[in-house]
Amino acid sequence: MADVKFSQYAKNAGIGYRAAWNRYKAGRIEGAWQDEHGTIHVPDPASALAPKAAVYARVSSHTQKEDLERQAQRMIDYALARGLQVVSVTKEVASGADDSRPKLSKLLASEDWGTLVVEHRDRLTRVGFNWFDVLLSRQGRRIDVANLAQEQTSDLMDDFLSIIYSFTARLYGLRGSRNRSRKLIAALEDEAAGI
Q: Which SMART domains does this entry report, sorted A to Z (predicted)?
């Protein structure tokens, strides 16, 4: 298992160097030891978690259930081919623009994995992928994107419609939002068709 610098341990724990030193002296840093030069070695918990993978598969609608199963299996095969140990598989039907996905929230709160495997960036989220990457890397975790190619147009349209519906619901109330959404979508389709 790799070590982290003692100052990095303190930073990761959100405490000062002196507080980390007191924690070490009290024996509250598991596996930490001091060498003959006085350097304190702290085991990096991320190095133990890195080979443990959590697979996350997502589709936008229930009509894509079969694709969800195939996507999850592709990511399991991908993770195993990369030498990762799959410890959990999460499958979800939800919009990529939806920020309240219960299965994803539960997965992110879990501490038994170090690598999150997704097929495309947009399978994790349509917006803010880099924030996920930054926050997970601060925890010593990482995201492995199997395919960096462009996302599918149909999924983009589903998510776009979800965003339109959400905004119109906020602006006009739930009752009128569905009709206004339909009118806006029709206008966009007419514009795209050149009418």
A: Resolvase (SM00857)
Instruction: List residues with catalytic annotation.
Output: 60
CB 63 within 8 A of CB 94: no
Query: Domain limits at 132?
Result: 48-145
> What is the total count of domains within the chain?
3
Helix (H) and strand (E) counts in the chain: 9, 7
CA distance 44 to 113: 14
pLDDT digits (tens, 9 = 90+) for 65-76: 899 999 999 999
Predicted TM-score (pTM) of this structure: 0.58
pLDDT for residue 153? 54
**Contact yes or no for 111/50 (Cβ under 8 A):** no
Tell me, yes or no, whether 187 and 157 share the same domain. Answer: yes
| pLDDT tens digit sequence for 78-88 | 999 988 899 99
CB-based contacts of 74, cutoff 8 Å, min separation 6: 119, 146
End-to-end CA distance of the chain: 64
**Residues 134 and 178 grouped into a single domain:** no
